[in-house]
Amino acid sequence: MNKWQRWATGTVAGGLLVALVMKILNQPIMVIGNLLFMVGLALLVFGAVCILLKGHLFTGWRHRRRKGEDPAPLPGEKVGVRHVASVKNAPITVNAPARYGLVSGACYMVLGIIFTIL
């Protein structure tokens, strides 16, 4: 089991534990379901932001010289179109925090819908 899977499982288990405690404290099930759904939405947004951070959306806009590269082009010079295209057309990478956010967010949303229906 990967680290993000353990975190997602622990987060969902913690959410169920909080829901149980809220039910013991006589909170309505509708409130518990709404809370779980909102936390799930927040985690889905977190996962989407993590995916977009790896999307190379601003490739070709900023010119930063890294160690061992050619000097940055002057403001009047053009950026290599083939390099920008190869970076932008690279496959989408979904890293571990994004997987955690998407999986745990989906689980929270399903739990929220189930609690709301009850």
Description:
With 118 residues, the protein is mainly α. It has one domain (3-59, 78-117). Helix content is 65%, strand content 0%. It is built from four helices and no strands. It has helices at residues 3-24, 29-53, 81-88, 96-117. Helix 1 (3-24) runs antiparallel to helix 2 (29-53), helix 1 packs parallel to helix 4 and helix 2 packs antiparallel against helix 4. The protein starts with a helix and ends with a helix. The model has no long low-confidence stretch (mean pLDDT 84).
Q: First CA to last CA: what distance?
A: 32 Å
Helical coverage, percent range: 55-70%
- Specify the overall morphology: elongated
Largest sheet: none
How many alpha or pi helices?
Answer: 4
* Beta strand count: 0
H-E order: HHHH
Structural class by SSE content: mainly alpha
Tell me, rounded to a whole number, the average pLDDT.
Answer: 84
Q: What is the total domain count?
A: 1
Radius of gyration: 21 Å
Summarize this structure as a short list of keywords or feature phrases.
elongated; mainly alpha; 118 residues
